[in-house]
Amino acid sequence: MxxxxxxxxxxxxxxxxxxCSGCSLHSGFYGAYNGMAKSVANAFTSLRQKYPxxxxxxxxxxxxxxxxxxxxxxxxxxxxxxxxxxxxFGSPRVGKIIKLKFSKLLKITTIFKNIxx
Length: 117
Known about the structure:
Layout: H1 3-9, E1 14-16, E2 24-26, H2 27-34, H3 37-50, E3 57-61, H4 63-79, E4 85-89, H5 96-106
Parallel strand pairs: 3-4
Antiparallel strand pairs: 1-2
Helix pairs in contact: 2-4, 3-4
C-alpha cells in the first residue's frame, strides 16, 4: 500500500453526501473517488450502451472496497441503476451513507468481519 493510499485512509473528516438527508461520507474516500468519477461515468455510459442487457458488478478490496461503495452509490444517484452484484473484501467503513440510504438498495450482508487463519 503506497503513501497516497494511507493518506486517503487517514483523512478522517466526514462530509455531507448530497441527495441524502443525514448521510455523511469519509472525505478521503470521497476525494479519491472524485478523482476518477468522470472516467467511471463515461465508461459506464459507453458500456451500458454497448451491452444494455449485461449485469453490473461492482467490487473492490480494502481501499478499492471503499471506492466501490462510493461508486455504487454514485452510479445509482446519477443513472438510477443499482448493481446486480456488489461485493467488497476488507473494506473500511465509508460513512453513514451505506446505513441510511444504500443498505436496502444494495442488499448489504456482512458475512465475515474477521477470519483467523
